[in-house]
Amino acid sequence: MSAMTRPDIRRPEAIDAPWLTAVLQAGGVDAVVRGFSAKAVGTGQIGDSVRFTLDYERAAEGAPASLVGKFPAAGDESRNTGVALGNYLREVRFYQQLAPTALVHTPRCWFTDVDEATSEFVLMMEDLAPAEQGDQLAGVTLDQARLVTVQAARLHASHWGDDSLDELPWVSGSKTAPASPVTDELVAMMWQGFKARYADRLDPEWVATGDWLSAHFTQFGAAHDGPRCLTHNDFRPDNMMFGTAAGGHPVTVLDWQSFAYGSGPTDLAYFLAGALPRQVRRDHEAELLTLYHDTLTANGVVGYSRADLERHYGRGAYLLFGTAFFAAMVVSQTERGDRMFLQMLSSASDHMRDHGVVG
Fold it and tell me: Has this prediction a pTM greater than 0.90?
């Protein structure tokens, strides 16, 4: 039995066998870890993830073969962004307080904690393999899009019109949340910087969309006139795990660093615009909106019309566009990140034009 009664908050390089033993025992598994191997996994921009494969001295039934831990980003730029935007605190609080009622499929959380003063945190989750992480650049199949649409509706139905979320200051968009650091001036500055950095890779239509949106961004988000609910706010394939022929849950939603009390259809537009080829989205959008609306209804949502859904959904890709250029300028730059942000930007522009948000 480890002398450690409760795990502390530590970075991956400081993790040892007694600490992993304490994580498992805190989760109700009588096991003693003798050793382990650690390997980085995933493609996170704000946080770093590590898989710990465990070697047991003693393992009772239910002891996992491996765990995945999430930690602050090693890169200063990405880590400072996570701290400034409250992402690390927000994700820990989600798993501690909201995940049990959110209806969406999330990983089992074995242990999580955060230091509010420093934003140091640790999040130890089940290893979802053989499920595999989605890929924003590769997109998803239509069947996967249907699975995700159902998960989105379940998430949104879980706290539909739940004004108790307004009392939680770590929920973005709540009445008690601190004022957002994302001002009109900051958005305009980020867009100008993005245009300068990627000038030779930008289509004129994308530039026109960004010039228009960057002048209206904060008002655009505040103009939502429908019910609010628990939203993910970075609802894309990179933040999901998909089952494979070898097994795994069909779809699991990860990365709860940006969730908010906001517009549910914005999540759906964010996902479908970015994850499906434009023509596939166009051909199947009505079907997917019906699936979303029917799932909301099946999970207790009443009084939300199809017309309102279509209107709110049609505006929703603005967040995908804004996230693309804003995030590109505040996280550590990588080649894959560049391609991903440009893909998000272009698909969001297509969606906004398809729905008449910008001409």
Answer: yes
